[in-house]
């Protein structure tokens, strides 16, 4: 049995877990709560989750600042129900103050935050650019290597951005859009659309966005930001990892082990607990759905532990595929025969 725990639990830690609700009233930006300092002994992914709400018919906004950079803006509109916001960013070793600020579009109403959680996590084969002010294109490479199940093939690329335009509204642009104070992104010189956008259209200035994509391992991939307003400030974090899941199918390895061996793959929640999907096989030239294309599938929330014995199959002729935005692969293993 060959096993790799690619989610590095030795590095994992919960640093902040505060259920208390805090609020501010009024249209000016104010401190909701200073959650104090967190210290990273090495570079790591910071995983953040919180809930916010406002009164029915009103709009509130929350900014989270970690150290010297804004990280995400949470926008709650027209409902008194809590909304949950999550985000992951790559940060260098160091000590960072964690600050939540809030405002409301009505001077007599409040914006609320609660269930604030922040932790750190690392993965094997992870590379990143720490959250910083964007100045020039960022290139990163996930190095090729052999895992217990075969050579690395693909990695997720995740970009987290916060934008702010003085005396104006920053807007993240998708392909085909032309927006005032627009911020767009290319990956390897091709414009891409953002996976999630939080456009804070009532607070003026702030917006944040997250992009998930899939790239090849072993070559450099370049992220570049374009701004329609040169005065717009963009904070950016970029990281690549074969074990983080997004909305698109990810093939982390090219399976290479003897037939009749059993492959084990464990999927887990990361910043969300989505439905995660694991598949072994290959989409056919004429597809009749996953049940006809794939010899094995597993799906579900929480921890999904899948295993399949590739007895009549050639592993290298089939694909290991996983997806599920907010989830990850935590363990791969092969029982060799």
What does this protein structure show overall?
The radius of gyration is 21 Å and the shape is globular. Strands 2, 3, 5, 8 and 10 form a 5-stranded antiparallel beta sheet that branches. It has a 5-stranded antiparallel beta sheet with strand order 11-22-15-20-19, with no helix packed on it. Strands 12, 16, 17, 18 and 21 form a 5-stranded mixed beta sheet that branches. It has 3 domains: 113 residues, Jelly Rolls; 115 residues, Sandwich (Jelly Rolls); 83 residues, no CATH class. 1% of the residues lie in helices and 58% in strands. The protein has 337 residues and is mainly β.
- pLDDT < 50 stretches: none
The percent range for helix content is under 10%
Provide the succession of SSEs.
EEEEEEEEEEEEEEEEEEEEEEEEEHEEEE
Q: What about the largest sheet?
A: 5 strands, antiparallel
Please identify, by name, the CATH architecture of the largest domain.
Answer: Sandwich
Number of helices: 1
Query: End-to-end distance, in Å?
Result: 9 Å
Keywords:
337 residues; mainly beta; Jelly Rolls; 3 domains; five-stranded antiparallel beta sheet; 1% helix; globular
Question: How does the SSE layout of this entry go?
Answer:
Elements: E1 2-5, E2 13-18, E3 22-25, E4 30-40, E5 44-54, E6 59-66, E7 69-77, E8 83-91, E9 94-104, E10 110-121, E11 127-133, E12 138-140, E13 146-147, E14 150-152, E15 154-164, E16 171-172, E17 182-187, E18 190-192, E19 196-199, E20 206-216, E21 221-227, E22 233-241, E23 253-255, E24 262-269, E25 276-281, H1 290-293, E26 294-300, E27 304-309, E28 319-323, E29 327-335
